Amino acid sequence: MATEFDVGVLVGILVGEGHFGGDGRQPQVTLRMHSRHRALFDWIMATFPGGKLYGPYHHGGRDYLQWMARGDFLRTELLPLLEGHLLPALDGHTYGRFLEMRERYARKLGVPGSGADPGEPDPPASGW
Question: Averaged over 52-59, what is the pLDDT?
């Protein structure tokens, strides 16, 4: 069970290094960092099980790992955690990207009040 400290570390990392978006079909939160941060990725995987770790990748002179949160883990675990801790006063840009992801993928995320059904496809994205 994650402590408030654990949640704070994850939210801080996602504010500074994370990406909130999707692939056009499904929402995802992505964290990509240099392979030297392997211990941090291992901690995230152990503390917040449900995401997936990919890599290491070696591309264009870069060595990196990538953690992704999608599907049920994003919808039932990470989204509520972020909704409770990611505040506009903390980082307006990141908060805005989070809201864009929530709006664009409302059906897949089952966002309350959206009339969303996670099993239904989202409407086509405009301008992304």
Answer: 95
Question: How far, in Å, CA of 6 to CA of 47, rounded?
Answer: 8
H/E stretch holding 43 reads: helix 38-47
The CA-atom distances, in angstroms, between 9 and each of 78, 89, 107 are 13, 17, 29
- SS3 assignment, position 31: strand
Residue 101 near residue 22 (C-beta atoms within 8 A): yes
Each residue's pLDDT tens digit, 34-46: 999 999 999 999 9
Residues 6+ apart with CB under 8 A from 74: 27, 28, 29, 109
Domains of the chain: 4-108 (3.10.28.10)
- HEC secondary structure over 61-104: CEEEEEEEECHHHHHHHHHHHHHHHCCCCCCHHHHHHHHHHHHH
